[in-house]
Amino acid sequence: MVESTRYYQDYKDRLDDVPSGEPDITEAEMFVYLALKVQMGHDVRDKLTDYWSTMDQLYTPLYGTMMKRDRHLHILRYLHFTDNKNEPDRTDEKFDRLWKIRDLFEILNDTFPKFYNPSENLAIDQVIVSFKGRVIFKQYTHHPHPKKTQALRH
């Protein structure tokens, strides 16, 4: 919230003709924003603005009741987790490519295990999605032990 507000203020400071300002993002608004993002994953629409549509076939009062469309778009536009002025040296061999979200990543990494302890009866479904872009992060896949694979085939 703090960094998103800072990023928005920095943006306004760079403009000659300053539009009327938006209020700072509150903690409560951020929770609503994140809750709506989770809900949107269960209610997929063609366009982001369709969630606030008043057309009969698309209308879902939840979105407009929880947050105005323009406020949601404002938060999305200025969502930031780190001050850009703290950018590390990109030529450093230890440059952290996740520096913009590193703090958030660490918080989530520390918090998730406190609230989710998977049992021994856990199934993982693998989905393969075609992707033609470039990703700098490595993905590791688990390959079963060759002897166990042979035993399953017989």
Give the SSE order as H and E letters: HHHHHH
Strand content range: under 5%
* CA-based shape: globular
Round the Cα radius of gyration to an integer and report it: 22 Å
Count of helical regions: 6
Overall number of strands: 0
Query: What would you call the structural class?
Result: mainly alpha
Mean pLDDT: 82
Please bin the fraction of helical residues. Answer: 40-55%
| Intertermini distance | 57 Å
Summarize the main sheet.
Answer: none
- Spans where pLDDT lies below 50 across 5 or more residues: 148-154
Descriptive overview:
By secondary structure, the protein is mainly alpha-helical. It has a domain at 2-87. It contains six helices and no strands. 5% of the residues are buried.
Features:
disordered C terminus; 42% helix; 154 residues; mainly alpha; 6 helices; single chain
Which helices and strands, and how do they pair?
Layout: H1 2-14, H2 27-40, H3 61-66, H4 69-78, H5 102-115, H6 146-153
What's the gist of this structure?
The chain is built from six helices and no strands. With 154 residues, it is an all-alpha fold.
